[in-house]
Specification:
heterodimer, A: alpha/beta, 9 helices, B: 8-stranded mixed beta sheet, 6-stranded mixed β-barrel, 24 helices, binds adenosine-5'-diphosphate, binds magnesium ion, transmembrane transporter activity (chain B), membrane (chain B), ABC transporter, fused permease protein (chain B)
Chain lengths: 254, 851
């Protein structure tokens, strides 16, 4: 898309893949009102791996959904690249999702009737676009699925299923990949694999990933961490290690 | 447990609604059929009771000849009695009044010059009975006829033809008789005897125009003095009645008329409708079964949990039984009531096809309620319990698994059983049809049922590959949307085939009738166009035995444009004691316009005691040229006739042909039903038709048809039946479509998460809707193609079985079958519309979150 290559100018070294500006999301009506997001402003820089952390119910998923065009804000703005999502229709949001965004959910990422390869190319097929074969090869090799491509999800382990999901998210070379607790259902080894693939996609392939996680170890794979609490940004951490993440979490509570 | 059931019911409102609707429609149709049957019976009863209310006895000839329909409507004839008998009867003690009654054919022409009355009910002319109590008609306007040119007409006919007192018009008896309407009569308090049109002359008028012989009448009607019992009266009249005549009491006569209607018409009519109610119910029960299977499968996770929590297997089944009973009860009661509306619609349907039925209040009998309730509850219960028992066998662990719990592959047992049943059914049908024998139709019917059952059992085995093949073009044409739709249609073969089976049965029956009708039609087309060598036909319509004056043919023949004009009349005689229909014709000229393919003898020189017979009949009777047979006419006269010609083609002329000279002396009303015309060389069709129409228009406007129109009109009866059959089967198809819609709704409910995922990764609403619709189309096409195959095969078998009796040769109407196929696809789109719309409305985030 047009915005992918847009540079914001000499002053900014790194382009912004997505950002939220004074984002507020309110669920329910007055008496039962829940402020899932309360005036959140964050930037997700391009070519970086950003982790989003915070206690359960702090608005992490809501933030992702709004930035990814799956949900709309009550007030404020979100941008994908330079494109403001607030003004878009359902149809336009759908097209944005399939062309500029990749998704990895915690579970149920794949259509049971399609093979692994068909699942990977699904967004491209829906767009009626031909996958770039070199890129597809790279992605498939990165996640190590070459010999599983014709299998159906029911024939794959949980870890393999998530790898297919990561491959699908990357296949269309999106502006940004959102992953909401992608390792939440996996054992630690399979989880580590997934995290390594995502880190590699950012490092070696120039992709942008934003990942929600509870796990300080998972967060340590990222280049930076954004902390949320009660729907507000509660802090930032660059070059996280498990230890610094834990420390930050502790100080947030304290 | 009941609590859980009720909560479950409330939670599945939409699916319940679909199930209820299927039961409702099936029962409503059944109920409507029964109500209509009872209503007609009751109405006919009152009509006949009214007609004979003042009649205590009737004297008539005991001699009657009846011939069954064969290739046309039934005909009968009864010998006339002397009118003078009335005078003698009047002298009997206890007789208050006795009058001759004449009843015959009389087509009344309306103010617009068109014939009044439809195809079904008789159009009668007779005498105005002067005794007001003997006469069921009452003057409501004007006066009784006094001269032979005056008539009273019934109010219904007067209104239909916009005739008023003082108007002049024509009655064809069948000669056109110019008359003045002097009175309008009601029948009891109604407009007429059902839809029958009645034109009453005075006695002299009726003798002159209807019997065409002075001094004879159809019967003598007798009224008793007050206090004289009708049986006593009949007893007293009997000695005077004379040889060959019989005396019936009013009650006996009414019962006889009612019986006859019951036997000839109502029984066939209700059987016919019940068959379609049966098809509708069968289709409905497929839909119910399928809906319950899915509901139970979806709930098996829940029920496995219940079982894991300790609920007994019986409790699971009980909860489904209760659910089925509730649905059966509600839907059957609703269907019962809806049947009243359906009865009205059915009546309207038959009216619109020209079969007018007597109107009147609807008769709703307790037996209707009982039958409908029992059938409705039993069908729903049976369709619900079977899947429930299956579900109760699901191991708790299996049910708690993440993926769909229903077995995806069809079992080997099913494959074997389905294949064996189908093969057996086909074998039975083939052996019956090819082997011949007495009960071909019965055995072939049994085979047909076996085949049908086999195909339904076998369905799930072929559903997966079949849906794959049917959906294959979508892969190319519709990309990933088509591929997803195809996969979805293939993923649960049992469900796909169960859903398609309902449609398959409906389409199968439609196809069967289409093929059979087309075969009959094409053989009629064949023989008629082969044998009819003329250019034009004057016709009175194929039903109701209308009449043309025998004078019309000579009049037409005199036209300069016309080379030959031959009238064909119809009548009944007894041949060696059996009633037979005969064709009466100007045999000298018949061969010029109609090629009967005479094998032996000379048709054109048939003498007054000679007849021509079809080769089929000659073979059946063991006759050859020179054989003789005893013929008895309606007037009681007998003669020995010699077979003087044998011909092959009986489609137009029937089995017997005699000359006009042989018939006319014995005919009460000598009537032609058609005139075949050959034009002079060089006269164009348009010019010829114009000339002929000018003559017939003056005589009351029978239709003038060219060859093509004539062939179409001979087959018109077939088309009319087919039209009615299609309308009736439409209901079954609608039920089947609702079944598809229901299955899709349930499937969408099951696949909520998948749909959410698809939308999240970029499927537009439009693509999602298309995906659901295409799945629906694949299922519908699977059912349609199966139904077409089944229907063509069974249609072929039926035609083979019937062709043993000389009815038809097989013809597959490819055009019509293609229409059925396209209609199946369109129906699939329609069935998918609702579910697709609902699926597209899903909230993406909620759908993803659904577990
Ligand atoms: N659809 C919804 N309706 C009402 N409240 C919601 C909805 N989705 C989320 N919430 C509320 O918004 C808050 C943030 O939710 P979420 O973003 O899912 O948190 P997290 O992902 O950080 O656990 C929570 O209090 C949650 O209950
Ligand atoms: Mg969350």
């Amino acid at each position: 898309m047009t915005s992918t290559t847009t540079s914001t100018g000499e002053t900014t070294a790194i382009r912004v893949a997505a950002r939220a500006v004074h984002a507020t999301k309110i669920y329910g009506s007055e008496s039962t009102e829940v402020r899932a997001l309360d005036d959140v402003s964050v930037e997700l820089p391009g070519g970086r791996f950003t982790a989003v952390m915070g206690p359960s119910g702090s608005g992490k998923s809501t933030l992702m959904h709004c930035v990814a065009g799956l949900d709309t804000l009550t007030s404020g703005q979100v941008f994908l690249g330079t494109l403001e999502l607030g003004a878009l229709s359902d149809k336009e949001l759908t097209l944005v999702r399939r062309e500029q965004v990749g998704f990895v959910f915690q579970a149920f990422n794949l259509l049971p009737t399609l093979t692994a390869l068909e699942n990977i190319t699904l967004p491209l097929d829906l767009a009626g676009a031909k996958p770039d074969p070199d890129w597809l090869d790279t992605v498939v090799d990165t996640v190590g699925l070459r010999d599983r491509l014709s299998h159906r999800p029911s024939e794959l382990s949980g870890g393999q299923q998530q790898r297919v999901a990561v491959a699908r998210a990357l296949a269309s070379r999106p502006q940004i990949v959102f992953a909401d607790e992608p390792t939440g259902n996996l054992d630690s080894r399979a989880g580590a694999e997934i995290l390594a693939f995502m880190a590699a996609a950012v490092r070696d392939m120039g992709q942008t990933v934003a990942m929600v996680t509870h796990d300080p170890v998972a967060a340590s794979y990222a280049d930076a961490v954004v902390f949320l609490a009660d729907g507000r940004v509660a802090g930032h951490l660059a070059d996280p290690t498990p230890q610094t993440v834990l420390d930050s979490l502790k100080s947030l509570k304290g | 447990m009941l609590n859980v059931t009720l909560k479950g019911l409330a939670a599945h409102k939409r699916r319940l609604f679909g199930t209820c609707l299927a039961v409702f429609l099936g029962i409503a149709f059944l109920s409507g059929t029964l109500v209509l049957g009872d209503t007609l019976r009751a109405n006919f009863d009152t009509l006949f009771a009214d007609a004979n209310a003042g009649t205590d006895a009737i004297v008539r000839s005991a001699s009657t000849i009846e011939a069954d329909g064969g290739r046309g409507p039934d005909l009968d004839g009864r010998t006339l009695v002397p009118s003078a008998l009335a005078d003698r009867v009047r002298s009997v003690a206890g007789v208050a009044a006795a009058e001759p009654s004449i009843e015959g054919y009389g087509q009344l022409i309306g103010n617009d010059g068109k014939a009044i009355g439809g195809n079904g009910p008789p159009r009668l002319a007779g005498n105005w009975i002067t005794d007001p109590e003997l006469n069921p008609y009452k003057l409501v306007e004007g006066r009784a006829p006094q001269t032979t040119g005056e008539v009273v007409v019934n109010r219904g006919a007067a209104e239909a033809g916009k005739l008023r007192v003082g108007d002049t018009t024509i009655v064809q008896t069948p000669e056109p008789v110019p008359v003045t309407v002097v009175g309008i009569a009601s029948f009891g308090t109604g407009d007429g005897f059902g839809e029958v049109t009645f034109t009453a002359f005075n006695l002299q008028g009726a003798e002159a125009h209807v019997t065409k012989k002075p001094g004879v009448a159809s019967s003598i009607v007798v009224r008793a003095e007050p206090g004289v019992n009708e049986e006593v009266l009949a007893e007293r009249v009997r000695p005077l009645a004379g040889d060959g005549n019989e005396v019936l009491t009013g009650t006996q006569f009414t019962a006889e008329s009612t019986d006859q209607i019951g036997r000839d018409f109502l029984d066939i009519f209700t059987t016919f409708l019940t068959v379609f109610a049966g098809v509708a119910l069968l289709v409905a029960s497929f839909s119910i079964y399928n809906t319950f299977s899915i509901l139970v499968a979806q709930r098996s996770r829940e029920s496995a949990l219940l079982r894991a929590l300790g609920a007994a297997r019986a409790q699971i089944v009980t909860s489904v039984v209760v659910e089925a009973l509730l649905i059966g009860l509600v839907a059957s009661v609703a269907g019962l009531l809806g049947g009243v509306a359906i009865a009205g619609l059915l009546k309207g349907l038959f009216d619109s096809f020209g079969f007018s039925l007597p109107a009147g209040g609807l008769a709703f009998q307790a037996s209707t309620a009982v039958i409908c309730m029992v059938v409705g509850m039993v069908v729903t219960l049976a369709a619900g319990v079977f899947p429930a028992v299956k579900a109760s066998r699901v191991a708790p662990v299996a049910a708690l698994r993440e993926h769909a719990v229903e077995a995806v592959r069809a079992s080997r047992l099913r494959a074997v059983a389905g294949a064996v049943l189908t093969a057996l059914g086909v074998a039975v049908v083939l052996s019956a049809v090819l082997g011949g024998g007495d009960s071909v139709l019965a055995v072939a019917g049994l085979g047909a049922v076996l085949t049908m059952v086999g195909v339904v059992v076998f369905g799930p085995v072929v559903a997966r590959p079949a849906a794959g093949v049917v959906g294959w073009p979508l892969l190319r044409l519709r990309g990933v949307t088509g591929a997803l739709a195809r996969q979805n249609a293939m993923r649960n073969p049992r469900r796909t085939s169960g859903t398609a089976a309902a449609l398959m049965v409906g389409v199968g029956v439609v196809t069967l009738f289409t093929v059979f009708a087309a075969s009959i039609r094409s053989s009629i087309d064949d023989t008629v166009s082969r044998s009819f060598g003329g250019d034009l036909v004057v016709n009175t319509g194929s039903f109701g035995g209308g009449g043309l004056s025998p004078a019309l043919a000579p009049e037409l023949a005199a036209l300069p444009e016309v080379r030959t004009a031959v009238g064909l009349g119809q009548g009944v005689v007894q041949v060696d004691g059996d009633g037979k229909r005969i064709t009466v014709a100007d045999v000298a000229n018949l061969g010029k316009v109609l090629d009967l393919e005479v094998q032996e003898g000379a048709l054109e020189r048939l003498g007054p005691t000679e007849m021509a017979v079809s080769s089929d009949e000659a073979e059946a009777q063991g006759w050859s040229i020179g054989s003789t047979a005893g013929i008895r006419f309606v007037d009681g006269a007998t003669a020995s006739f010699t077979v003087a010609a044998i011909y092959d083609v009986g489609d137009v002329a029937g089995d017997y042909v005699v000359s006009r000279a042989a018939w006319a002396p014995h005919a009460g009303q000598d009537v032609d039903s058609q005139v075949l015309i050959g034009l002079e060389q060089g006269v164009g069709l348009t010019a010829g038709k114009a000339a002929v129409t000018a003559v017939t228009a003056a005589a009351g406007g029978a239709s003038v048809l060219d060859r093509k129109e004539y062939v179409a009109s001979v087959a018109q009866g077939v088309d009319m039946m087919l039209g009615i059959v299609y309308v009736l089967l439409f209901l079954a198809i609608v039920i089947a479509l609702m079944g598809i819609a229901n299955t899709l709704s349930l499937a969408i409910h099951e696949r909520t998460r998948e749909l959410g995922l698809l939308r999240a990764v970029g499927q537009t609403r439009r693509q999602l809707r298309a995906m659901v619709r295409w799945e629906s189309v694949i299922i519908a096409l699977f059912g349609t193609v199966g139904g077409l195959g089944l229907g063509v095969f069974l249609g072929w078998a039926l035609v083979q079985a019937a062709s043993a009796e000389g009815f038809a040769t097989f013809a597959a109407p490819t055009g019509q079958l293609a229409v059925v196929l396209v209609a199946g696809a369109v129906a699939g789109v329609l069935a998918g519309l609702g579910p697709a719309r609902r699926a597209a409305r899903l909230d993406v985030l909620q759908a993803i979150g659904t577990s």
